[in-house]
Amino acid sequence: MGDVNSRMEGQVPFRMRTPRILTAFAMLLASAIPAAADAPKGPKAPTARDVAAAVQSFYEQVSGVEAAFFQTYYHRLYDRYDRSKGKVAFVKPGKMRWDYAQPNGKIIVSDGAKLLVFEPGGAGEVPQLFEREMKAESLPQAFSFLTGTGKLEDSFTFRLLDAAKQGYADGYVLELRPKEPSPQYDRILFYVLKHEGAPSGVVRRVLIVDAAGNRNRFDFSNLAWNPKVTDARFKFAPPAGTRRISN
What we know:
Helix content: 10-25%
Shape: globular
Distance between the termini: 119 Å
Mean pLDDT: 85
Structural class: alpha+beta
Largest sheet: 12 strands, mixed
Number of strands: 12
Strand order of the largest sheet: 7-8-9-10-11-1-2-3-4-5-6-12
Number of helices: 6
């Protein structure tokens, strides 16, 4: 018994050593698992202002753009869609020209000061040329970022919409609402391309919605930056016999 007692001296009973063993094992296990705070974080999702800033920044770096467009206009009152297509050019400062393909044939031209809208009319109809103030038309306002005539942040508030629900999962849908009420439109939507998980700043679609619920949508393709366009392209002389209307 003496030998047994001597062997027991200085040893901790098993029931007393168990908690220490478990504690040591827990510490070892914890050291092998990275702390949650050390886990790698993904890129921060851009805010509406981030997307707007990307658009502004991109188009400030180019002198202009040429593109093909497809326009879809929805008349809410008549529940009717009108579709047309053509080519468009924007050049800073404030110049733009829309040439509609036949059978439409409409031409919209701005030299930065006045906006001319030419309606050729149908067979037997007299062509008409409307001369308008730039501020009285929704197109210059909606595309001011392309013509270098305005800062988005000065004129609009921003909100990001659910891109998937808007049918544009490949990018961002930025809603712009005017800070000052406009009779020409209630809100504008920019459909902005995504590049490597961030907004590229390139706008591929613009949707203009007015207070009555009419929707004017422009889809752009074959974009060409910094086009070599002369000032002559932004001047227009209507054919003889055209009726001029100023408003």
